[in-house]
Amino acid sequence: MTNNSNNYFSSDFKLGILGGGQLGKMLLYETRKFDIHTKVLEASKEAPCRIACDEFVLGSLMDFDAVYNFGKQVDVLTIEIENINLDALEKLEEEGIKVYPPTKALRTIQNKATQKLFYTDNNVPTADFSRFAYASEIEDAIENGGLELPFVWKAAQFGYDGQGVKVVRSIDDLKELPVGECIAEKMIPFKHELAVIVVRSVSGEVVTYPVVEMEFHPEANQVEYVICPARIDKIVAQKATEIALKVSEEIGHVGILAVEMFQTQEDEILVNEVAPRPHNSGHYSIEASYTNQFEQHIRAILDLPLGKTDSKVAGIMVNLVGADGYTGEVVYENIAEIMAMDGVTPHIYGKKQTRPFRKMGHVTIVDEDIDEARRVAQKVKETIKVISK
Amino acid sequence: MTNNSNNYFSSDFKLGILGGGQLGKMLLYETRKFDIHTKVLEASKEAPCRIACDEFVLGSLMDFDAVYNFGKQVDVLTIEIENINLDALEKLEEEGIKVYPPTKALRTIQNKATQKLFYTDNNVPTADFSRFAYASEIEDAIENGGLELPFVWKAAQFGYDGQGVKVVRSIDDLKELPVGECIAEKMIPFKHELAVIVVRSVSGEVVTYPVVEMEFHPEANQVEYVICPARIDKIVAQKATEIALKVSEEIGHVGILAVEMFQTQEDEILVNEVAPRPHNSGHYSIEASYTNQFEQHIRAILDLPLGKTDSKVAGIMVNLVGADGYTGEVVYENIAEIMAMDGVTPHIYGKKQTRPFRKMGHVTIVDEDIDEARRVAQKVKETIKVISK
């Protein structure tokens, strides 16, 4: 427990947040609850964090000077997105600014090839993969027999929102890939995709949230529901939690670490990837958990005691994405209809323009009974539609 | 259900909030969640709503022009405090601005003498009282035998935060009273003080929250805990809910109406007073309820379907007030210690200066077991202290 926690609740202390997107916006609810002074750096002046922070600074997160100069003006620095200039962070750390997660952890995670190598180096189970400096090398590898179709292509850097990941089934598919550094990962015919959020405070207190399950649409192969708790065997849940804790310890993050995993047909657990910040798989916690992931991240990076991670009720999250075929000024069709259903809370991210599959918000459904929550979640999904005017 | 609910979730719609205090700040969390454009009128530029609203306008809520000009720029107007220029509101209503709660309801409530007369006119049970145009008339009434000591003096207008209410036990106590319009109310030796939050939407949907109980300190005679659900007989809870519903219907509010009541030694229910806005007795709902009172108020005034009012878990609220003997820059002593307790969430209002008994925040304690929540609440109260540097 921190000895000077009172400092955070005074006007002298400043928390810097790198990134002003939707995750930052949800972090800001919690900083306001605790009356913590915040300063946000973000490249877009239309960003959701523009309001609700105490100070908003325009600047690129990839620009050394922008990040460095911003960081010098705060006491603790955190992130809401991984794509940050890490050299600037490192220099800030050297000069005594508290950076959480630490730059070292971000270096491991930011590049997906580095992240995968880290798993194999540390005996963390993960899907087999090959690393390529250029996408053009992939075709050679296939011809040499060094790589088999199908596989999952992942850009090594700067993927977001489903971009940067593609299933490659034929040589033809290769033509559409960007040219840069990438990995080719063995496709895992998994039983479930799972995630565990691990939280680690500055002084080393560690807690985990219950295992959540991503339920996929049987045909579209897209995540439809994030379900807490996962409807899986206890032994598997325990294994997943242990592996998430091992990853957390090896990476040495501070704050939230969301660990995404596959449960194979043989009930093996393979780590897919991690995010060192509040994560989509933890959004359910706002309505369902004793302590939501955003408050928990703040507690962790300010070295306050961590909160209880249990759920009050079962929680299911549905992402609100732009419907296919609609581009333009957004309309949330039937939003009143879903709000009439018990235990349903929409979160609207405030993007004015929709386009196919753009993340526009999410909806949480909570109920004492997980099966009832699942039924309502399906009704929500069938009712609301994100279209354009 | 509204037919044009989509309008609220677009950039054209503007919600005006009169008052920029702590209640407004908590309302703003919800408007941000739904991405509703907000505009706040408030006299103090240091107010908690200064950030998190889309537009902040400096101006007095009692000034006709300030309120009128502000109101003309929004589509729906609501309040976070009752002390508003009602003539301006009335004119805005006449000119087509949607004002919720309606001015008529506010006229009934704003003046406590009018509010009491309203109860007797509408057969709502309430403590006996006398009304005085000037406090100086009280002494005559006592001498004439028209009023007996002790009684509860209440200022007819503009009381806040426990000011404007005093127990008068002797002729000497009269000297300390302000001169203006007031009421003298019979002291009720109540068993419990209870409150019920009733919510009414524009189109008339009505829901109630569970009855809550204010537990008093046995010696200090101050509310120590707001407890949901109240630990009272079901029949009494039902009676309290029915009376709250009757008051709600007669007053014709839209949005939250918090109805405070006494349960007498004979299990009679007497209405004490009401507040037509989110209320201290409903703060527990942020952590404990399926739909918190702030989201519910927004749903009601935008004519969206009302949310489920049940609790996920038992909730207890403790007010954080400045400790006696401390004035100056605030320090929250032992805040980390209470955050280490299960299910404890502090809400810090962000006032930089503390003084004896000033409301500086509140703490919510939730648990599946109400008795455990009560034990933790006591530990919280014994641990945290709001002092000065």
UniProtKB/TrEMBL annotation, chains A, B:
Organism domain of life: Bacteria
Pathway(s) it belongs to: Purine metabolism; IMP biosynthesis via de novo pathway; 5-amino-1-(5-phospho-D-ribosyl)imidazole-4-carboxylate from 5-amino-1-(5-phospho-D-ribosyl)imidazole (N5-CAIR route): step 1/2
EC number: 6.3.4.18
UniProt cross-references to SUPFAM superfamilies, sorted A to Z: Glutathione synthetase ATP-binding domain-like, PreATP-grasp domain, Rudiment single hybrid motif
Keywords in alphabetical order: ATP-binding, Decarboxylase, Ligase, Lyase, Nucleotide-binding, Purine biosynthesis
Enzyme class: ligase
One Pfam entry name: RS_preATP-grasp-like
MF (Gene Ontology): 5-(carboxyamino)imidazole ribonucleotide synthase activity; ATP binding; metal ion binding; phosphoribosylaminoimidazole carboxylase activity
Reactions mediated catalytically: 5-amino-1-(5-phospho-beta-D-ribosyl)imidazole + hydrogencarbonate + ATP = 5-carboxyamino-1-(5-phospho-D-ribosyl)imidazole + ADP + phosphate + 2 H(+)
One GO term describing the cellular component: cytosol
NCBIfam families: PRK06019.1-5 (NF004679), purK (TIGR01161)
PANTHER family attached to this UniProt entry: PHOSPHORIBOSYLAMINOIMIDAZOLE CARBOXYLASE, PURINE BIOSYNTHESIS PROTEIN 6/7, PUR6/7
Record function comment: Catalyzes the ATP-dependent conversion of 5-aminoimidazole ribonucleotide (AIR) and HCO(3)(-) to N5-carboxyaminoimidazole ribonucleotide (N5-CAIR).
Family designation: Belongs to the PurK/PurT family.
Name of the protein in its database record: N5-carboxyaminoimidazole ribonucleotide synthase
Gene behind the chain: purK
